[in-house]
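Lab notes, practical 5.
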Amino acid sequence: MSFMIIGILIIIIGAIGSSIGLKDNNQYNLAYISGIIVEFISGTALILYRLNFKQINETSTKLYQTWKYLAAFKKTETLGGDKKNDTIINLIYKFVEEK
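Output from the prediction step:
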């Protein structure tokens, strides 16, 4: 966010300098160009942040689902005999239906 502010300030300073009639155009052209470059870099950083945040959320959701499945199967270990097998089969059917 601070890079965006810096880029905007550089562009504004270049515009103010050229509008009040300062004659060194190369200096203000450099201000425009550097402001645009800084804005591009900060915009790219925001896009990458958004994409990474989305990926982290998806990974977190998948990890939660996996934990939920493992916890359910772990609880079936305390059951005995046929009840354990029936419960595992029911869990598998339930998990397949969710997807």
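Observations recorded by the TA: The CA atoms of residues 10 and 78 lie 67 Å apart. The mean pLDDT is 80.
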